[in-house]
Amino acid sequence: MNSLELVCRYSLPPNKLGYCGPQDCSALLKECIDSPEDADKEKVKTALEQFHALMPYLNMIANKNGLSAFDSEVLEAYWIGNSLLEQVEKRDLQRLVLKDFLGKGFLPKKIAEEKAAAVKEGMTPHHSFHVLHINFLNRELSSIVKNLSECLVQWGEVKDVTIKGLKVKGIELFKNGRDLNMREKIKTVENPYKLDAGERDLVSVHWKQAVQILSKDEFTEMKKYTLKNLEAVNK
What's the order of all strands across the beta sheet hosting 165-176? Predict the structure, then answer.
């Protein structure tokens, strides 16, 4: 899978729901997924640059590691997790919230300042940081636990392949007092990208859709950085 196909796979589910990115780019993203070698890469990048919750993180990870925003390692860091995340400091995340989310009008001043002040040591610019700490820039999408859980990129072990999709032993968020916690859940998720997944394969899930088959290393990294941000949020 090339880097643009990867970011399109993760970006398409919330875009089709109207939660993230330009409303008229779903067909373009899907074309990149279906025929990545034939896709107009510049058009795809231009569309992705309008995803206001995505690009600030990609730019920051890239700048801190001397790379470009659409380099495969950068996209992997944000969506799955890798060591590039470790180069980003607490003050970088605080600056991102104030400059990119408050400065461009995506968060109200009071909320942005509270979010920036509440950034903790150990947090990383993994997608889970945005879900668990920032929540949503789309003000029509409420930050209830069910929505946060669906937006979080999850992992799951395939238990069965059915007509409806993949039956997986996955995860979900739930509220335990003031804390967000995670627990296992058996569920069926859609398989829109027709992953050739079988029993015991590990897959990632975004907005109830299987996105990619994960290697053991990718699974380890995704779990590591998600739990790291979850632990920091609950401190």
Answer: 179-189, 165-176, 154-162, 202-206, 209-214
| Beta-strand runs (E) in the chain | 154-162, 165-176, 179-189, 202-206, 209-214
pLDDT at 166 over 90: yes
Contact present, 213 and 202 (Cβ < 8 Å) = yes
pLDDT (average), residues 131-147: 89
* pLDDT surpassing 90 at residue 233: yes
Residue 126's nearest CA partner among 91, 99, 87, 178 is: 87
Confidence at residue 130, expressed as pLDDT on a 0 to 100 scale: 97
Rounded (to 5) percent helix, strand, coil in the chain: 45, 20, 35
CATH numbers and ranges of domains, the chain: 3-134 (no CATH), 145-234 (2.30.30.140)
The encoded tokens of residue 172 equal 């979900």
E strand segments, 163-220: 165-176, 179-189, 202-206, 209-214
